UniProtKB/TrEMBL annotation:
Name used for this protein in its record: Response regulator
Domain Response regulatory: 6-126
SMART domains named in the record: REC
Taxonomic source organism: Chryseosolibacter histidini
Superkingdom as given in the UniProt entry: Bacteria
GO BP term, example: phosphorelay signal transduction system
Keyword annotations: Phosphoprotein
Modified residues (4-aspartylphosphate): D59
Amino acid sequence: MSAQRPLVLVDDDKEDQELLLLVLRELGFDHEIKLFNTAEAALNFLYESGDRPFMIVSDINMPRMDGITFKKKIESCKILQPRHIPFVFLSTSAKFVAQTGGLNIQGYFQKGNSWQELRETVEVILRYWQRTQHTASN
């Protein structure tokens, strides 16, 4: 992989952030990673930067603004929506899946209960988005 557009990672859990960063390094992911503890901070970055990220990977269950609201704000924004940024939910719980109906998300994945499960899940996500052609590829 060559260094390209950044991956935006949004998760309020420090331990999960660290695990995800370790998995990404182990998999040889060389894109810049923009890490955010809150959806608000990630949204501000997206508004202020001219970057069109490689992908957004977001937790769902976060304080103040959850991942579903975060995605809705992206979809309703005249600045962000045309960027067609691939968006994937990566969460510990499947109970929120029903609430994501109608959103333009490219996947919902559970983090899993082990390092190996998390690694395999992240690897599947990355392989797909590195190989696919989509409107944000250009």
